[in-house]
Amino acid sequence: MRPRTWTAVLTVVALAAAGTAWRQSWRVWPPAPHVDRGLIAAALPVIDRFLETGRAVVWPSSMPAQMRPRWFCAEEAIETARRGSRVRVSLEVACNDYARDGGSLVTHAGTRTPLVVTLDHGGAVPVVQDVADPLDGAGFRPSLERMFSERGLAEFDRRQRLSQGVDAPDAEAARAVGLPPGAKAQQYNS
């Protein structure tokens, strides 16, 4: 081949490689946002209790009261930011209502959503002050853009593309109702 042909072939190969690298760059860029692991260790149990008590994203269960249904939530931090004693935690949560039906774990309703929780961490134990959740429908994406930082939103999107969202809290619910942690929840049918 002539040098000009080689140059053209190498240019096409280089452009194809650059295009492929660009399409895959969302896997590593932008870099993951900051998550303060010490802060999360103190804050997640407080956030979990707050969410499970029904003051933010859960509602009364529609399963019969004699089954003693209860909500359980699982949270996964996306980003933390501290300003003085105030802490903002961007996270994804999955909450389901669970009950024991004979030897089975059953669930009837649930929600999975990104949230921004604001806490006051001035004392020994953080206190939840506000929970912001995105709007439904057409307002979902614009509200996420207002709630999350640019890097936090990119990390949320990356997790969604890789199907790495937070798992439902089946194991926690199973332990709480006296079933083995590996018990998978089945849909409750009334």
Protein model, in words:
- With 190 residues, the chain is an alpha+beta fold.
- Helix content is 34%, strand content 29%.
- The protein contains five helices and five strands.
- It has helices at 3-24, 37-52, 140-147, 150-161, 170-176, and strands at 70-83, 86-101, 104-120, 127-132, 186-187.
- Strands 1, 2, 3, 4 and 5 form a five-stranded mixed β-sheet that branches.
- The longest helix is centred in the first third of the chain and has 22 residues, at 3-24.
| Computed structural class | alpha+beta
Described by the principal axes of the CA atoms, the overall outline is extended
What's the multimeric state?
Answer: single chain
Low-confidence stretches: none
State the distance separating the first and last CA atoms. Answer: 75 Å
- Give the rounded overall mean pLDDT: 88
Q: Could you tell me the radius of gyration in angstroms? A: 22 Å
Helix percentage range:
25-40%
Number of beta-strand segments:
5
Strand and helix order: HHEEEEHHHE
What proportion of the residues form beta strands (DSSP E)?
25-35%
The major beta sheet can be summarized as:
5 strands, mixed
> Number of helical runs?
5
Descriptors:
190 residues; five-stranded mixed beta sheet; 5 strands; extended; 5 helices; alpha+beta
What's the SSE blueprint?
Layout: H1 3-24, H2 37-52, E1 70-83, E2 86-101, E3 104-120, E4 127-132, H3 140-147, H4 150-161, H5 170-176, E5 186-187
Parallel strand pairs: 3-5
Antiparallel strand pairs: 1-2, 2-3, 3-4
